[in-house]
Amino acid sequence: MAFRFSLAAVLNLRKSIERQEYLNLERIHQEIAKVQTQLAEAEQQKFGIQQSRDVQLTESMPSVFLQNLYEQVYALEKHMESLNALLVELAKKKDRQIKVYTEARQKREVLESLREKQHAAYVLEDNKRQQTLMDDLYLARLKRK
Fold first, then answer.
1. Distance between CA atoms of 43 and 31, rounded to whole angstroms?
2. How far is it, in rounded angstroms, from Cα 46 to Cα 64?
């Protein structure tokens, strides 16, 4: 008789839930990386605009162009502030998701531990059964002689 774990369906469900929570965590990590990339790009744009402004300040330039450059820098700074706020929110979301994933993993590990214990007990009982059968066969052969 083969080993059957009575909670196999629950274990499979726990594995599925754990996998889903892991994928959710990975998605959050990807969002964080995307926002960090956008933040770095905005920083580079701001630096480029500031360099362009500094170069053009040494030359004569209409005040409209200068005002436009300052407005671009201001808009980028506002955009960077919103990206930083989004990063803070994503970090909180990531922390919550880590807790959810950890809980799902622990629940799966408890069931796997129970399965392993039951399997070990089954193997021990099966070995005893086989040994008893071997002993009975041996004694039966002795009686025939």
1. 18
2. 18
Query: Would you give the end-to-end CA distance of the chain in angstroms?
Result: 32
- Among 76, 22, 26, residue whose Cα is nearest residue 46: 76
The pTM of the full predicted model, rounded to 2 decimals, is: 0.77
3-state secondary structure the chain: CCCCCCCHHHHHHHHHHHHHHHHHHHHHHHHHHHHHHHHHHHHHHHHHHHHHHHHHHCCCCCHHHHHHHHHHHHHHHHHHHHHHHHHHHHHHHHHHHHHHHHHHHHHHHHHHHHHHHHHHHHHHHHHHHHHHHHHHHHHHHHHHC
pLDDT digits (tens, 9 = 90+) for 26-41: 999 999 999 999 999 9
Backbone angles phi, psi at 92, to 5 degrees: -65, -45
